[in-house]
Write a structure and sequence with these properties.
Blueprint (H helix, E strand, L loop, with lengths): L2 E6 L1 H8 L4 H7 L8 H6 L2 E9 L3 H7 L10 H17 L5 E3 L3 H10 L2 E8 L9 H8 L2 E5 L5 E2 L2 E2 L17 H13 L2 E2 L6 H10 L5 E2 L16 H9 L3 E4 L3 H4 L12 H14 L4 E3 L18 H10 L4 H18 L3
Parallel strand pairs: 1-2, 2-4, 3-4, 4-5, 5-8, 9-10, 10-11
Antiparallel strand pairs: 6-7
This protein binds zinc ion.
């Protein structure tokens, strides 16, 4: 069964470790991480949102020490990662496309081509006037999560230790409010994952589009500040939006640990809770592959059929699993204007 996945950090992995020949690495196979083309095919992943993400300078230095000497230019890093995504499409020999609309995604599905939608995770490097936002839109980016864990001139992302509430302080700045409005005018999808409580509610008030949390789980089952409270889930439901289930152990487990000895039923249980609050139209997958540690039982994207089997064993019927795997994302992306 074909899967559309709401969030991955493949571009960061390629930018960090395979910058000279990213497409070659992607199509031949990558040893580290969760995603490459051969494993995507094994897992029957038919499409997803691919994040452009600028990590903190210290993270780059500790992950690839040779890069520590490079100047740290966040805006340039964003463009480099978008360029990597374009290279994946250009070198695909017809196996992958950069999608700019829901029609593009549907066509990819029909043609058996990987549908790649460009997403910005963390707007920290963007200007306050919206010029770069507009430039990224023109270059094909169709989705933005304005925040990551840190504070920026746009406002407050959610950080904090486990267990904890998402209510961690102030919300959007005036520039952040403008950013939400500008993204709305462009019909760029706004991702509320990584928002703290105030930022979330202010975004809910400002945005007319469905609220989408591309890679977050239920706070009631795993009280990470990054997970969504039942009140937030109800607001997402009422907006006609969606939550993509994150496969990271730390966002799944009641103890918040990164322990890979986490059963696949942990993912099913989050889905149960999300559906209990929101119904079956508003839940899908948002793996966070290449950005988290996964349950050993899942491994990487090639393990997706095992996850679908776990849903089947838990009593989910075929129609419902198809909605989780593809239909709900397709519907909500269309509603957001894609
Ligand atoms: Zn994230």
């Amino acid at each position: 069964m074909l899967i559309f996945d709401g969030h991955n950090d493949l571009l960061l992995n390629l930018w960090l470790h395979h910058r000279d020949a990213p497409a070659q690495a992607f199509y031949q196979g990558i040893e580290r991480g969760h995603l490459d083309f051969p494993r995507i095919q094994q897992g029957e992943m038919g499409g997803g949102l691919f994040a452009i993400f600028v990590p903190p300078q210290a993270y780059i230095a500790s992950t690839v020490p040779a890069r520590a000497v490079e100047p740290y230019e966040p805006l340039q890093i964003m463009w480099q990662q978008l360029d990597i995504l374009q290279q994946l499409a250009d070198a695909s020999g017809g196996r992958a496309r950069l999608c700019r609309s829901s029609d593009d995604i549907t066509a990819c599905r029909t043609d058996g081509v990987l549908a790649m939608v460009a997403h910005i995770e963390g707007a920290d490097a963007l200007d306050e006037q919206g010029e770069q936002l507009h430039a990224f839109w023109q270059a094909g980016v169709r989705s933005i999560g304005p925040f990551w864990n840190l504070r920026s001139h746009f406002g407050e992302g959610v950080s904090g230790t486990f267990p904890g509430s998402p209510d961690t302080g102030p919300g959007l700045t005036a520039a952040g409010e403008r950013l939400i409005q500008q993204a709305g005018e462009l019909k760029m999808m706004i991702d509320v994952s990584h928002m703290n409580s105030k930022t979330f509610w202010e975004t809910a008030r400002l945005s007319r589009a469905p609220l989408v949390a591309s890679h977050s789980n239920a706070h009631a089952l795993c009280p990470q500040p990054r997970n969504l409270t039942d009140d937030q889930l109800m607001a997402i439901r009422d907006s006609g939006g969606l939550v993509g289930i994150n496969f990271g152990n730390a966002f799944l487990r009641a103890d918040g640990k990164r322990d890979a000895d986490t059963p696949l039923t942990a993912i099913v249980k989050h889905c149960d809770h999300l559906m209990k609050i929101m119904g079956s139209d508003n839940v899908a997958f948002g793996s966070d592959f290449d950005g988290i540690t996964t349950p050993a039982a899942l491994g990487d994207v090639s393990g997706m059929p095992r996850l679908l089997a776990a849903f089947q064993e838990a009593g989910y019927d075929q129609t419902l699993i198809e909605k989780l795997a593809w239909g709900n994302w397709q519907r909500v992306l269309q509603l957001t204007g894609l």
